[in-house]
Each structure stands twice: as C-alpha cells, then as structure tokens.
Amino acid sequence: AGSQCLSWTGLNWFFCSLPAATAAVYKQWIPNTNFETASNWDKGRVPCARDVVRFEKDKVVSVFVGSPHALTDMYLPLNGEFLLAAGAAFTAFDGSWDPGCDSGGTARFADAEHRSWFDPTLWRDVLPSGELRPGGPIFSVHEERVPCRHDDVIFQPETSFRVNTDSSQPVIHLRSISVMGQELNTPSSWAGYLGGPSAPLQFHGNGTLQVTGTGCPDKSGCACGNALDGPRICAALLRAPGRQCPDPACQSPLQPLGHCCGVCGATINLEFTPDFDLQKYQDKLVQELLSQPKYAGVQMAMSKVHRAQTFLGIVSRGAAPLIQIVLIDDRAGAQAGTTAEQLAADIMQDIAQHGEALGISSGKMEVATGSTASGQVGSHPVSRITAGTVMGLLFSLLFLGGILFLYRKGKLR
C-alpha cells in the first residue's frame, strides 16, 4: 500500500501521496526523524496517550508516522510535515486506561538540525538489495565513508529525515538518490523532487545536491571528490561519541590521504598506465594474498587519490593521480602494523615481478609499526626511479644555472 503525507507551512495544511518503495543501493543514511523512533524523543520513549507532544515552533521537521497514536495534546512547529503510512493517524485521548502510560508528561521531539551529510558515522555501506554489506578485509578511508561523486545514496523507505548539507563545495555530485523507495537517477527527476514540498524540509545547508545518473567511467577508478570537505569530515568524526581515533602504538604513524586518524601499518602509492584496472587488481590482492591465513587480521583500503606535487618542494605543480593502498592489522603494542608491513612487502615483490602486465609503472611503500619508525621502500622499476632522479637533478642544476646567468647579466637583482 502507498503512503499519505500531511504537510503544513505556517497554518496552511495539505495532503499528498508518496510513491511505492523500490530497491536501493550503496550508501545508506542511518538516522531518521520517525515518530516511532524512541531516541527521537527527550524521554527516550515514544509518546503515549497521556503525554503532551511538543515540537519546537521554530524547528523545521519532516516526521514519518507508521501507526495510529492517541495523545492528550500536540503542539506543532510553523513549518513541517507528517508522512502518514497506511492506517497511521492521530486521535485525541479519551481518558480510557492505557497500559504502560499511567502518568503523562511533556514529550519533546529531538533537534535534528545538526546531523551533517559529511559525518562519516551517519552512513553505512549496503548491498544493492539494501541489506548491510557484510564485513570483510576491505575498508574505506574516512572521506570515502561519506557518499562520493559516483555513489548511489539511499534514505530508507518509510523513514523521514533531516540532513545538513553545509559544504566547502557549492555542488555535491551523486549518481542517484533514493527517497521513500523512489530512485531518482536523472537530473530532471531530481529537479522535480527538489521542486516538491518535502525536499526543503529534508535537506538544508549551503551545499546543493546534484544527481548526474553516471557512474565512474574510468576502469582505473575515480577519486571520491570529498577532499575539499576533508576537514569537515574529520571534525564531525572527532565530535562523534566514542574513541573514533585511538592512539596509535607506533611512534611515527602514517597519515593516509582521505583518512582522519594516524595508523600503524603500511601504505603503497602506485603510479599506473591506461591498462590498470582498479577492481581487478583489488580482487587479485584479496584472492591471492589477503585470503592467506597469516593475513587474517589485515584490512586493506584501495582507491584513486590526487596527491599534490611541488617543484623543488616550493612551487605547486598541481595534483597527480595515484592509487593509494592502506594496510592495517589487528596486532597491538610493539607488534602493531607488523603483519600489514609483511603484506605490503609481498605486494611490492609481486609488483616487481608482474607490475608491467598489471598496468603498474611504479610503487612506493611507507611503513610505520609499533617497533620501528616509518621508512620507505623503493619502487618498481628501479631504473625508472633512478632515471627520474637524475633528470630531476639535471633540471634543478639548469634552473639554478639560468638564475645565476640572469643575475650576472643584470637581469635579476
């Protein structure tokens, strides 16, 4: 059965209908603003018949109601909506006995204004069926736990929500957005939804969500696109309850691109050719190396990133695309990161033997464990690195010689 919605703006109320549910994919928003969610109320329980329900008048809300409720009284905000499931309703309490509701009180709806789009703790990975993706050896750096530019976003069917889209980028690109079971995967369908009554109540902030309908077109992968909002993502992560960034056991922890916490283990940065296939290479590492019993406690993150480049460490040369591999393990104390280091060494050895066939032109490894300081291991092929180093030195000498020549000619002071 479909749903109904009861909306109001100021004192103007109207009814509308919602589409039937469809399948959803990929990254799913966790919190909701449902009436029946106990954590959405200051008393930690759903209001009962003797309660007076109070919504703050200046707070904008969208509230899904899944069942009928009898209440003593209810104060509504000036701007909001109720999304009523089939059979849901509000009725006045008739004074009859209500089990579990002996004494009434005031139940206040929680403030959802500060739930941020860029909080990585408020998203989870799901399968195309909408079920939670099972755990495994693959994890994501924090910037990629928030929807990336080619991801599908899901707001669960029969739930309401309110999300703050404040961003350091004017437009937040996505492949598709599913709301109330309706998948919006074209710019026109999303624009139509934005023009309806619910969107302004569900999304607020300076960032504009834009649906493109396109996935990543490059087999070597696509950068997530959340780098500009990296500080916002880390700030939200560190504000979340619990120890989101535990103290690393190593003296010089690594700081992977896109990750908010220092880690013990290893990182590998790969330069690649047009023949490189990110998904195939990740599958190869999982099947041939990560599946080995000795690496049972190791987790791996792999994605395309853009690392800033400079000339002589001073002048910016833009950003170069790289494949970043992050390896961590479940070892503690002085052993933290040592198993990840061993896996990284095996990966580098495999690159030395098969890198050209895989579309990998070079790889650089960096290590930090609980017992050793961070270090670097050379790339494959070594001849290419040596040649690059010689050319860099020659170019630097020519550059400095040119400056000296101009100085002697009086062209520079």
Helices and strands, with pairings:
Elements: E1 3-9, E2 12-18, E3 26-29, E4 52-54, E5 61-65, E6 69-71, E7 73-75, E8 79-84, E9 90-92, E10 106-108, E11 123-126, E12 152-154, E13 163-164, E14 171-174, E15 176-179, E16 182-184, H1 187-194, H2 199-202, E17 203-204, E18 208-211, H3 230-239, E19 265-272, H4 278-290, E20 298-311, E21 315-329, H5 338-358, E22 360-368, E23 375-377, H6 382-408
Parallel strand pairs: 3-12, 4-7, 4-10, 5-8, 6-9, 12-15, 13-17, 14-18
Antiparallel strand pairs: 1-2, 1-8, 3-11, 15-16, 19-21, 19-22, 20-21, 22-23
Helix pairs in contact: 4-5
Mean pLDDT: 86
What is the number of independent domains?
A: 3
The ordered H/E elements are EEEEEEEEEEEEEEEEHHEEHEHEEHEEH
Question: What is the CATH C-level name of the largest domain?
Answer: Alpha Beta
Under CATH, the topology of the largest domain can be stated as Alpha-Beta Plaits
Q: Sheet bearing the most strands, described?
A: 5 strands, mixed
Q: Percent of residues in beta strands?
A: 25-35%
How many DSSP E strands? Answer: 23
Organism: Rhodinocichla rosea
Protein name: Protein amnionless
Membrane topology: Single-pass type I membrane protein
Main location: membrane
Written description of the protein model:
The protein has 413 residues and is an alpha/beta fold. It has 3 domains: 34-108, no CATH class; 116-227, no CATH class; 247-367, Alpha-Beta Plaits, CATH 3.30.70. It is built from 6 helices and 23 strands. It has helices at 187-194, 199-202, 230-239, 278-290, 338-358, 382-408, and strands spanning 3-9, 12-18, 26-29, 52-54, 61-65, 69-71, 73-75, 79-84, 90-92, 106-108, 123-126, 152-154, 163-164, 171-174, 176-179, 182-184, 203-204, 208-211, 265-272, 298-311, 315-329, 360-368, 375-377. It has a 5-stranded mixed β-sheet with strand order 11-3-12-15-16. A 5-stranded antiparallel β-sheet has the order 20-21-19-22-23. A hairpin with a 3-residue loop joins β20 (298-311) and β21 (315-329). The radius of gyration is 27 Å and the shape is elongated. The protein starts with a strand and ends in a 5-residue tail after the last helix. 34% of the residues are buried.
